[in-house]
Write a sequence for this structure.
């Protein structure tokens, strides 16, 4: 009987490995097929035709070249204005981290799927950071639509009336669904991207974490009154001895916005990693460029991000602490006393990073490390690290 059980266990074990292998091998090709069908959509709707300086036939050729030669979906063609870049340098662009080949390599080598919940769930991530003594905002816990969330908010603001609270969907992404709550003229208001309502009229739609709305550094507040954050991507090297900065940019809200996310109308300027100063241009999600902030008029070029070296030390420490997950996107707000981690992203996309900061594989250290991890997906990119 024991022998039969062993045989069954061996068969189960081998079949599981086969299924895993088939899943890893087949899924990227299925997703590639879907993206191939979506190429006309990219051509007709994702190209900024008024800004494009090449003919429509050439654009079609370029999109096919990117898809088949560089092996990713060309949704970066317009935001990165690739028509202005020498075609031989296109291989320095990695493309979206969500594309099939990139995603399968990343999941296998540096971003194991089983750990996603640690970063997707904001409450879990907060507790992990807290246990590691990482500087984070004060958090009051999780509220739910069917709970007494209105009373919870009333109690917090009654005891600390000067506070402004931020409510974030516990499993949200991209700044969607975020709102703030605060006291004003004896009433409590909740405000989102659409408008504001009295707390009595507010309806919570999803479980959300409640945190203090961080007061940022004065120099940043003069540029934009939103909570302006630095997005910085780190990569733990294969030998685990160093942490590389893949790229960094700083986001700013426009007008009276209280969040700075690009998909919510914000703009972002690249940060010079060595100096901690902003680059000349900021960009919105459509690839439009700005030399100064549309609301405050602050010129971006040369602006020094406060506490930059402290920020670098902090994100490198976090990446080493989470050594089981080797590439992370950190969202950091700079206060008068230093950097504070707002969120840690498990799968920071790369199109915005390369639009704002330029191709990540232009950095020799990054492309060599990508090659060591087997993350490079096309021959031209691999040739960049050939002896």
């Amino acid at each position: 009987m024991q022998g039969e059980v062993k045989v069954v266990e061996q068969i189960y074990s081998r079949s599981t490995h086969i299924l895993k292998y088939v899943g890893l091998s087949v899924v990227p090709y299925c997703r590639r097929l879907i993206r191939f069908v979506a190429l006309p959509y990219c051509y007709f709707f994702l190209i900024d035709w008024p800004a494009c300086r090449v003919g429509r036939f050439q654009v079609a050729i370029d999109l096919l070249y990117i898809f088949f030669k560089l092996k990713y979906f060309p949704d970066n063609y317009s935001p990165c204005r690739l028509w202005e870049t020498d075609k031989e340098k296109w291989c320095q662009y990695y493309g979206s981290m969500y594309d099939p080949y990139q995603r399968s390599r990343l999941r296998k080598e540096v971003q194991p799927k089983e750990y996603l919940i640690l970063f997707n769930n904001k409450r879990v991530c907060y507790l992990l950071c807290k246990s590691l003594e990482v500087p984070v905002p004060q958090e009051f816990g999780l509220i739910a639509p069917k709970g007494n969330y209105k009373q919870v908010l009333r109690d917090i603001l009654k005891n600390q009336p000067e506070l402004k609270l931020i409510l974030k969907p516990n499993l949200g992404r991209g700044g969607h669904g975020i709102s703030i709550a605060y006291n004003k003229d004896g009433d409590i208001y909740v405000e989102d991207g659409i408008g504001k309502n009295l707390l009595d009229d507010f309806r919570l739609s999803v479980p959300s974490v409640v945190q203090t709305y961080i007061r940022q550094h004065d120099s940043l507040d003069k540029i934009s009154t939103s909570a302006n954050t630095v997005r910085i991507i780190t990569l733990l090297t294969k030998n685990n001895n160093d942490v590389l900065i893949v790229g960094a940019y700083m986001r700013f809200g426009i007008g009276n916005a209280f969040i700075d996310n690009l998909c919510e109308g914000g703009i972002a300027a690249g940060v010079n990693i060595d100096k901690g100063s902003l680059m000349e241009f900021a960009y919105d999600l459509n690839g439009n460029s700005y030399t100064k902030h549309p609301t405050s008029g602050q010129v971006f070029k040369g602006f020094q991000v406060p506490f930059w070296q402290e920020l670098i030390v902090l994100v490198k420490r976090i990446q080493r602490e989470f050594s089981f997950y080797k590439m992370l996107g950190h969202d950091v707000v700079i206060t008068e006393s230093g950097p504070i981690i707002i969120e840690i992203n498990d799968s920071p996309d790369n199109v915005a990073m390369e639009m704002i900061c330029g191709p990540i594989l232009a950095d020799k250290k990054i492309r060599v490390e990508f090659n060591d991890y087997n993350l490079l997906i096309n021959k031209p990119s691999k040739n960049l690290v050939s002896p």
